[in-house]
Design a protein that fits this description.
single chain; alpha/beta; 5-stranded mixed sheet; 20 helices; 45% helix; CRAL-TRIO_dom_sf
């Protein structure tokens, strides 16, 4: 059989994305919007209420080795921050029983928080593609994500920023907030880019992680904080990110099976179609034992995006040398922006509802976008027509203008990697030959 042409491969890659929708796919997108708008009208269960506040004294993190494979022990501590503001039934009950309990207004807030600065249509399409255009499966995946984000308190993680989250965690358990900050700035994770497909990159140094050094909840919160900050890098038509696991120095003591399962679940169930490629760099022989346990957990789509690289020459097939941090390239004189810049501690964000004019304009824009979308769904207009794309640009502009009201400051913002200046959003990886990029109108 002759190999597929370059044009055919490219067509397959963009199929089902904005500007590349069939009439049937456009109809399904409209149907999904309509179903979502109906959901947002539901009253929810007036008797739903959060569980009793949880607070514990400081205690050593639970010990756990690799070969426990995440087995729960009776002494395992429950999450303290996660789930503290929602009814436990929202997540513990099956989806069909849990969703009617949640006020539509809460689901609506969760949805628009998830959209963030992205194109709303593009977000919806990720769920349709992830479920191969099975409408009911895509809808269930979407609403399951919304309830999960409410329980995980994603909006609060974003609003508090790293310092505000530290303060909240300290109130719940002494030392927990400091543990979160220590993990965030331990060298475990750096942001940068681009890879050779123009994606942002998260570099993870696995050798710095030891499961017993922190509570499992701390690692979950760190992961979510990094993922949500990274989403600012999204600029259409690039919707995905690259992860590089630097396995140099890895031993079984660094393995955390619970973290692996959490990360895989995030990408497969709650952030679908956002992983562009995953590079596992310099994995030692001992990792083969670990990999044999991870492989059965992998969704085939995720598995297809994983590549192993043995050395820098192989890695630079995917990531240019100019984007590599010094701990991978070996060149101590060429550090990435995230590596080399030291900044002051960011100010704490707030959970108070914003009251600025920009925030009110954003709320008005959501109403306008929703109304126009409901009307558009009744027509035969395409998702890519001029009026709809202009609406997406105005939505994005309104969301960017109020980002300071909704997002607590982060170290990456202070380093100038994601900057809102004069109501424009810029990304600056700081890598060699990189020019700061205005992505405000990339919808």
């Amino acid at each position: 059989m002759a190999p597929a042409s370059t044009d055919a491969v490219q067509a397959a890659l963009v199929a089902g994305h904005l500007h590349h929708l069939t009439p049937d796919q456009t109809s399904m997108l409209k149907k999904l919007w309509g179903r979502l708008f109906e959901l947002f009208k539901q009253p929810g269960d007036p008797n739903s209420k959060p569980a009793e506040p949880r607070k514990v004294d400081a205690a050593p993190a639970k010990k756990g080795g690799f070969f426990s494979r995440g087995k729960k022990e009776p002494s395992e501590q429950p999450d303290l921050f996660i789930g503290a503001t929602t009814d436990p039934n929202w997540l513990s009950q099956p989806l069909e029983k849990a969703i009617p309990l949640i006020p539509g207004e809460a689901l609506q807030r969760s949805f628009w928080s998830m959209v963030g600065t992205d194109n709303p249509d593009a977000v919806m399409l990720r769920y349709l593609r992830a479920r191969k255009w099975d409408f009911d499966a895509a809808y269930n995946m979407l609403i399951n994500t919304l309830r999960w984000r409410l329980v995980m308190r994603i909006d609060d993680i974003i609003a508090l920023g790293e310092t505000g989250l530290r303060d909240e965690l300290e109130k719940l358990k002494k030392g927990m907030g400091e543990s979160f900050i220590k993990n965030l700035h331990s060298g475990k994770a750096y942001l940068g880019g681009p890879d050779k497909s123009d994606r942002g990159i998260c570099f993870i140094n696995v050798r710095f992680h030891h499961k017993e050094d922190q509570d499992p909840e701390v690692i979950k919160l760190m992961t979510l904080a990094v993922m949500e900050s990274s989403r600012l890098m999204v600029n259409q038509p690039m919707e995905t990110a690259c992860i590089v696991f630097n396995m140099e120095g890895f031993t079984l003591a660094n393995m955390d099976f619970d973290f692996v399962k959490f990360l895989l679940t995030c990408f497969e169930a709650y952030y679908p179609e956002t992983l562009g490629q995953c590079l596992i760099h310099k994995a030692p022989w001992v990792f083969s034992t670990v990999w044999s346990l991870i492989t059965p957990l992998l969704d085939p789509v995720v598995a297809s995006k994983i590549h192993f690289t043995k050395n820098v020459d192989e890695l630079t097939k995917y990531v240019p040398m100019s984007s590599l941090p010094s701990f991978i390239s070996g060149d101590a004189n060429k550090k990435t922006k995230d590596e080399k810049l030291k900044v002051d501690t960011p100010k704490a964000g707030s959970l108070a509802k914003p009251s600025s004019g920009e925030f009110q304009d954003y709320q008005d824009m959501i109403k306008e976008y929703s109304h126009e979308t409901a009307e558009w769904a009744k027509t035969d207009r395409a998702a890519e027509d001029k009026e709809r794309m202009e609406l997406a640009k105005r939505y994005r502009a309104a969301r960017i203008k109020t980002d300071k009201d909704l997002r607590g400051p982060t170290t990456w913002q202070l380093k100038g990697m994601f900057v809102v200046k004069d109501d424009r959003l810029f990304i600056d990886f700081g890598s060699e030959n990189w020019v700061p990029k205005d992505i405000t109108e990339c919808v």
